[in-house]
User: What shape does this take?
Amino acid sequence: MRFKNAFLAGILLTGVLTGCTGTNPQTEAPSEEVKETEVSTRIFVDSAGREVEVPTEIKSIIPSGDMAQMFIWPLAADKLATVSRTLTDDQKYYLGNATDGLSETGNLYKTGSELNIEEVASVNPDIIIDFGEPKDTIVEDLDNLQELLGIPCVFIEGNLHDTASSYRMLGDLLGEKEKAEQLAQFVEEVVETTEKTLSEDNKKTVVVLNGSDGLGCITKGTYFDEIWSLMMNNVAVTDESQMYAATGIDLEQLANWDPEYIFFYNSADPETLVDSAAWSQLSAVRNGKYYSIPSGPYSFVSPPSINRYLGMIYIAKTVYPDLFDWDLKEKVTEFYKLFYNYDLNDADYEKVMSSVS
Assistant: This one.
């Protein structure tokens, strides 16, 4: 992990802490208010097993990146001290303007979008929350970040099967157990219903594509593949795979896999892509089994955060309409209310489901 101008950040942080001292401990006794602030902490054990001293009442949070921001949003959008990136106008349509004016602090783990240490130090939040897959260096990374900034840093695991317990953990951390339990139960119902309904025998084959040419591929076994391997048989197996991004392929490779279904996300309009002789030879194209993943405020599958449960519901009713009893509109509307605090009307629903993500 690399920090932007870490040495400068250390200098800035020293200045911030020195400037906040306010009293000379040799000449003035701390006030009762200061004493209360000093003792108002507790030990929180995060998903990496780290014991972190955190404020008892957390009022300001910096998300470690896009996935963490999405995870935190349903419980504590009003407590975000910064955003990983500024919301677009399309995203604000669903999420509102609460984060207007907040600075961007980037992503702890993302090429080209590193965490802005100077900005984090200047904001001086109560806590930094990381969410996602546990990297091999997660303990070292967060310990180093915490030592550098003097700000508690916690990790909450975000694999597909962990998110229900992750919300219970976040609810405990933030004092929002009741709402967190609602989120956890929604996630559990989606995962458990899927696992009971599908087996390896009834899963359809799929390849998942993105990019302007549609030839970026989510390969089997990668982090982005979690929902696809649960719900379908992802036949995209390559010698070299990008764990957290699409792997480039060509049409010959796609034709060799020749899946029953193709899904596109973050790409050009599929109708434009498949309108060629090369694409028309694919079984999925010939049979009309190619789809663009819906989007709004985020793609239903990317980045792989809480939105993936929307993706699971969509895939279930698109590929296996007779196996799942879910009412697609009802479940999507319920998700938007719980996770985005947005009342999805009929026009909104049609817009979301027909969008090209």
User: Anything to note?
Assistant: The chain has 16 helices and eleven strands.
